[in-house]
Here is the input.
Amino acid sequence: MDIELMKSQVNEVFDLQKAHAFKMRTSSAEERIQLIRSLHDWVLSHRQDIKDAMFADYRKPFTETDITEIYPVLSEAKHTIKNLKNWMKNKRVPTPVTFLGTTASIQYEPKGRSLIIAPWNYPFNLAICPLVSALSAGCTVMIKPSEMTPHTSALIKTMIEELFDKKLVCVIEGGLEASQALLAKPFDHIFFTGSPAVGKIVMRSASEHLGSVTLELGGKSPVIIEKDADLKDAAKKIASTKFINCGQTCVAPDFILVPKSMRDEFVKNLNEAIDSLYVVDGLGIEKSADYGRIVNERHFNRLNQMVEDAITNGATLAKGGKNIPAENFIEPTILTMVKESMLVMEDEIFGPILPILDYEDIDEALDFVNKMPKPLALYAFSKSDKKLGYIFKKTSSGGAVSNDCVLHFIHPELPFGGVNNSGIGKSHGHFGFLEFSNQKGVLKQRVGFTAVTPLFPPYNKAKEMIIDGLLKWF
Ligand code: NAD
Here is the structure.
């Protein structure tokens, strides 16, 4: 689209949504549920279109799209439909004796005009789940899907145009220019999912208008294998969550910390686990219908450079290493003898490369994790609750899972999000509703004499005695 045309569309819709945002303030739970139900039904009846779009974008396997894009959206919609009435109710809070005669409650009002900026790696899920939250809270929405998955973005646009008037929800397609045109607008709330680097740009823009932000970012999510872990079980769960979506998952295990004495046994189990997932009839993994591709050539080159750098600097290729440039195919790749200074340990990998680092003592592993920016997720494998408790207490991460990976993302009652470098704010279910709502504290006072009237000036001895009592007893 012509940039000037896109900018004028942004301006026009932003103004249109202002009046509608006022209207949405008084919308009922039933009205919002109806909007979310229409979205739910559209997704269910266009399952194949969604799968086709994602296959066209980066050869995402159909079943993976069902599990990681369609299911999370349907589940988010159903959970919200079931609970919204309750979430929207004013919540009475207790009244202390100093507030005698008053009542107080928290009332949930929509923040107003919201913007959702989505990434490419789960391009449907990560644009539409926040939309469910925004609608549940009663916000108007402008969505900017990722330019890197154009088929999915076009489908999202079609869906939104079929379901909603643009004064309520509108999709603006495009890359940097579209993002910049949108970020120049004084949105009441911005929900951004993407990299920490762009997250900073978003937060800077929001600060110009003091708009609130939810930043769902990334980072290097570690896996810690304890000495008593079941290695076969751990390997299978790590392999299945690492290599889904070809490793391009914000909460994918990024690197593994394993006791040195167990490393070889763990690598053997991991290799077997990978083969059991993707090798059919002895054929290479590139023949598997269940293994995806890297989104584009830029990321394909970035990932290959990481592997080359690691090997040049002394890492051992314990599995994989094969790539097919014409298909953006990179085999699941395991690296051992990895050092902190290697490229693969610098930034989030976001691809099917899994570095393995050894440790001798658990505190050494925890110190290593604590030296890095706080990750989006942390995974620990152990049979001992005490050991798991120790690991979770001594580290900070957006979320954590024991004896599995990634699953906390789809638990409807858990807040999802990062901490500091991996994100600000939480999403999903009730937490998503709260993120798009202003929690207004409302105090109702009686007319005339109240508990605080005796404290009005002019102050005198008697009033000071009351104040002394207040300071002492309340
Ligand atoms: P990205 O930050 O490059 O892009 C995200 C969005 O921001 C896109 O829509 C893009 O068009 C826009 N954008 C890019 N550059 C911009 C700029 N300079 N100014 C304004 N907008 C800009 O991220 P990505 O490559 O699409 O996604 C990968 C990243 O997202 C990884 O770091 C991953 O961990 C993270 N991620 C986080 C979550 C989560 O839920 N926390 C989920 C998925 C991905």
